Amino acid sequence: MSAPLSEAANIPVSQASPILTYSPVVFDVPGRPVPLEIKVSMPESGTDLPVILLSHGHGQAIFLSSLDGYSPLANFWAAHGFVVIQPTHLDSTTLGLRDTKLPDAPLFWRDRATDMHYILDHLGDLEAAVPGLAGRIDRDRIAAVGHSLGAETVTLLLGMQILDPDDAREKDLSDPRIKAAAVIAAPGIADEHFSKKAGDNYPSLKFIDFSNMTGRALVVAGDKDLNVMFSDRLSYRWDAYTHAPGPSTLLTFLGAEHMFGGIDGYDTAETTDLNPVRVATLRALVWAYLRSQLYPGDPAWADAVEALEGDAIAKVESKKTLATSKA
Question: How far apart are CA 300 and CA 282, in angstroms?
Answer without folding.
Answer: 14
